[in-house]
Amino acid sequence: MEIDINNLESISGRVRRNILEMVYKAGSGHPGGSLSAVEIMVALYFGILEDRDRFFLSNGHICPALYSVMAEKGLIDKNLLASYTELGSSLQGHPEKTKLKGIENTSGPLGLGLAQAAGFAAIKKGSYIYCMTSDGEHDEGNHWEAVNFAAKYKLSNLIQIVDKNGIQIEGTVEEIMPLGSLKEKYLASDWNVFEIDGHNFDEIFDSTSKARDKKGKPSVILANTVFGKGISFMESNPDWHAKAPNGDEFRKAMEELK
Ligand SMILES: Cc1ncc(C[n+]2csc(CCOP(=O)(O)OP(=O)(O)O)c2C)c(N)n1
User: Fold this and answer.
1) Are 42 and 119 within 8 A, CB to CB?
2) What contacts 169, CB < 8 A, 6 or more positions away?
3) Would you say residue 74 has pLDDT above 90?
4) How confident is the model at residue 1 (pLDDT cuts 50, 70, 90)?
5) Nearest to 40 by CA among 169, 103, 131, 106
6) What domains appear along the chain, each with residue ranges and CATH number?
7) Which ligand 1 atom is nearest residue 94's CA?
8) 62 in ligand 1 pocket by Cβ < 6 Å?
9) Is the CB of 165 inside a 6 Å radius of any atom of ligand 1?
10) What is the arithmetic mean of pLDDT over 26-37?
11) 83, 97, 207, 248: which is deepest, by most CB within 10 A?
12) How many Å apart are CA 144 and CA 139, to the nearest integer?
C-alpha cells in the first residue's frame, strides 16, 4: 500500500479539530489522551488495518479520537460526531460495541481491552489484532493477566500499542503510580518490544511492520507521545485529562490548529 504521509498529516489536523469540537460541544470528554493518540489511530485506519484485522481500544475514554478517525475514513457519518455523549447517541463517552458498527469492544473500565483483544487473537490466527492501551491503565491487575496469557499462547498476531503520554487522571504516571521500565517488564514477560515516537508516521509504520514479521511472541509498541499534542496550553498538563475547554479556550485551541 502506497502511503502519503502529507495526506496523513492533514487528516490528523482534521481529527484534532473534530476532537476539540466534540468535547467543547458536549461540555465533557477527555481531550488530552485523545490528542496524544491521533497519529497512531490515523496510521492504523489509513495504512495498517487490512480486511481481516481488528482494532481494539482499551482506554475507551479517548474515543473522540476513534470516532473522529472513523468519520474521516467514512466508516460513520461525520454528522454523528456532533451527537457525542448525547442521550441515545451511538457515540457515547465510552465506546459501546452494540451501539456502533465497527467498534470491536465495549470499554470504559480500564485494563480490560488487552484481554478482549488477546481472546480474539487466540481464535483469529489468520488476522492481526491491534490493541491500544494507555500507560495509566497499566495500574490494573487485569491488564497483566492478559500480558501473561498472550505470552503463554504465543499470540504473535497480537500487537499492542501503548499510548505512553506520561499523564493519567489527576497527575503524572510517575506521581500517581510509577511503572518503572515498561520495556524491561514486557521483555521479562516474553513479549517483543519496540519503542517509538508515537507522532512519527514512519516509526509507527516501521514498528508495526516489524511486529507483524515476528513469530512466536506477542509484540508491544511503546509509543512515546505528548499528552494534549497540538494545543500549547493542554500539552503535558494533567488538568486536561477530563475537561472541556470554555469558549475562549476553544477558540484559542482552534486557532492553534489552523
Ligand atoms: C478500572 C478503572 N478505574 C478507574 C477508572 C477512572 N479513570 C478514567 S481515565 C483514568 C486515567 C487513565 O490513565 P490514562 O489512560 O493514561 O490517561 P490519559 O492519558 O487519557 O490522561 C482513570 C483512572 C476507570 N475508567 N476504570
Assistant:
1) no
2) 136, 176, 238, 241, 242
3) yes
4) low
5) 131
6) 5-256 (3.40.50.970)
7) 25
8) yes
9) yes
10) 98
11) 207
12) 9
Report residue 31 as a C-alpha cell: 481531550
* Residue in 152, 97, 153 with CA at minimum distance from that of residue 123: 153
Provide the pLDDT confidence category of residue 120 given band limits of 50, 70 and 90.
Answer: very high
What is the best residue among 19, 107, 134 to mutate for testing ligand 1's pocket, by most ligand atoms within 8 Å of CB? Answer: 134
- Tell me the one-letter amino acid at 203: E
Calculate mean pLDDT across residues 1-7.
Answer: 88
171-208 residue pLDDT tens: 999 999 999 999 999 999 999 999 999 999 999 999 99
pLDDT of 63-73, one tens digit each? 999 999 999 99
Largest CA distance in the chain: 52
Q: Is the CB of 136 under 6 A from ligand 1?
A: yes
- Under 8 Å between Cβ of 217 and 148: no
